[in-house]
Amino acid sequence: MPAQKRFPTDYPGVSFIEGKAVTTGKPERIYVIRYRKDGRLIEEKAGRQFQDAMTPAKAARIRSERIEGKALSNQERREAVQAAKEAEVNRWTIARLWEEYKAGKSNFKGLTTDENRFKNFVQPAFGSKEPGEIIPLDVDRLRVKLLKTHSAGTVKNVLELLRRVINFGVKRRLCPPTGFVIEMPKGMSMKTEDLDPEELAALLEAIEKDDHPHAGPMMKLALFNGMRKSEMLKLKWQDIDFNRGFINLPDAKSGQDEKIPLSVPAKGILEGLAHDGEYVFPGRSGARRVYIQRYVNRIRDRAGLPKGFRALHGLRHVYASMLASSGQVDMYTLQKLLTHKSPQMTQRYAHLRDDTLKRAAEVAGDIFSGLANGGNKGRKVVGIKNL
After folding, report:
1. How far apart are CA 243 and CA 247, in angstroms?
2. Is 113 part of a structural domain of the chain?
3. Domain of 45, in residue numbers
4. Contacts of 201 (CB under 8 A, 6+ apart)
5. Domain contains 24
6. How confident is the model over 254-302, as pLDDT tens digits?
7. How many domains would you assign to the chain?
8. Could you give the 3-state DSSP secondary structure of residue 46?
9. pTM above 0.70, yes or no
10. Domain check: are 261 and 337 in the same one?
């Protein structure tokens, strides 16, 4: 400390210098303590009379604690803070690994989806931790928590992203591995939702009565064109080709750009929307909308649909189920319409097409049975046994 006159107090090793209060400029005592530690003479400020409510007795207690090693000296505290800062800079946390991982994936089609998964799920749970600090219980807790509100497929994608980021760091020797295997949910969700004609009519009526500018049209677009919520939220007018009747889906969930046909009802819905900016379903100030769930759930509830029915994704299932059960759309075409990455995801609807084919076969069987039983007298009938 600068050489200023020290005034002694009644406590050994405690003195004060005359200074001025920071806020008022009035005279204020600044208490100083002196003591030896590890053979070194240490002199440091204990605190200000008014600003720190410091007294000679309090300064003496601080001096005793530092002599006994119960508290760090000012210099030791500064060194500890600096060491902590340096250690933090050198820590490869999950958040830091993600930034490094992301930098090398700028052209990756699914990066936006991964960014949302990281921000919403991985960052809150593990962002501040290094891979070596994560234990199996941490992952189990996240898995159980997410499975309460999300599909097994979503949870699998979140955990897979966490595993990818950690593996990235391990391969580049930025961090040690976790020491355990991150287990995925046992199976993908194959939940297929459907509505009967009465439920569908009630839903369409509730949509017509709702006054939200985007909730109803988005539900109709999911029903009439099978679009995902994420695709609609980021849909831009430039992505719609009204003349050729197609919707372009840049960076689709499949990991590549997709194109789906625009059905006549869907075209009518889009043409009826206000064309005020870049996005078809804009949020505040014309920016990209990020939230719609509360409003579509309100319509679902007013229609009297089950609480477990997913207001947007469920309608995508209804769209797919209607096409599959029509018997007029094969599974490959349905896969393309739904922009499924693999045919396995589309196979959940195969039984609906099979049911339609079975009913058609039963109709043919009824016709032949009627013929065999003389149901069409006067006409020449070929015996079923000879077919």
Report:
1. 11
2. yes
3. 7-89
4. none
5. yes
6. 667 888 889 899 999 999 999 889 999 999 889 999 889 999 999 999 9
7. 3
8. strand
9. no
10. yes
